[in-house]
Design a protein that fits this description.
- The protein is an alpha+beta fold.
- It folds into two domains: 96 residues, no CATH class; 59 residues, no CATH class.
- 23% of the residues lie in helices and 32% in strands.
- The strands form three sheets. A seven-stranded mixed beta barrel has the order 1-2-7-5-4-3-8. The chain has a two-stranded antiparallel sheet with strand order 9-10. A two-stranded antiparallel sheet has the order 11-12.
- A hairpin with a 2-residue loop joins strand 1 and strand 2.
- Helix 2 packs antiparallel against helix 3.
- It is elongated and about 65 Å long.
- The chain starts with a helix and ends in an 8-residue tail after the last helix.
- The relative contact order is 0.19.
Amino acid sequence: MLQEIMEYLHNYFVPISAKEVTYTISGGAISPSFGAEDGDRFLICGSRRNDGVYTWHDGVIGNDDDETVPPAVQGGQETIKAAGLRDETFAGTIRVCSVPPALLTLSGEIKTWVASNSEVLSSPMESESFNGYSYKLKTGNSAGGNTPLSWRDIYGKQLERWRKPYI
């Protein structure tokens, strides 16, 4: 969910400039090291197979769904083993994201809201009635039509302070 929110904000909370380095991902391990500390989110860019936001927890990488696997040690040098990473060598960047704690808290609220409303949001029904009971789904105009409200509609005002213009 955090990556989706960052995409919506056009903001990954990373330094604008970054030096391209050749990284190797093999068996889920990334080398060379890129300086992540416990709890850091980081962004992989320039990879053909693994672009995205991940979380570092004591040497273990989790993806956006918090899946983790144990770290690996290769050749006496600690490397990282990550859930879902595919083997490749690429010239790109891995940058630590400086995500504000308030956004992380709000991301958790959004994830909870989406989980509790997923059935309604995925339903093709806008309204229905039977046996004297009627139901109408609250809708908005976010997609140019009469569509169900999404997390963007509900939380857009709160997220606005972190949103960057799309360039």
